[in-house]
Amino acid sequence: MGELVGAGGQAKVWRVPGPPGPDAGFGTVPDDAAGRLVREGPVTLTAAWDHPHLVALFGSATGDSGVVMELVPGGSLEGLMEARTTLPVGEAVTLLVPLARALAHLHEAGVSHGDVAPQNIMFRADSSPVLIDPGSIRLPAQAPGPASTLGFAPAGEEPGPAADVFAWGAVAWWVLTGELPGPASHRTPLIMLRRELSPATARLIEDCVDADPRVRPPARELAGELLAGERPRPLDASAAVTAAGSPHMLTQAPAPTGWRALVAAGREAAASRFARPSQRRRRAVPGARRAPSRWLFAPALVLVLAACALLAWRWFAPVAPAPPAAVAQVSTAQRDAAAVGALPALDRARTAALRERNEAGLEAVYTAESPALAADRSTVRALLEAGQRFEGMGSRLEAVQVLGAEDGGDVVVRGVAVQASYRVVDQDGGPSTLVPSSSTALRWTLRHGEEGWRILSVEREPAAG
Question: What is residue 281's predicted lDDT score, i.e. its pLDDT?
Answer without folding.
Answer: 40
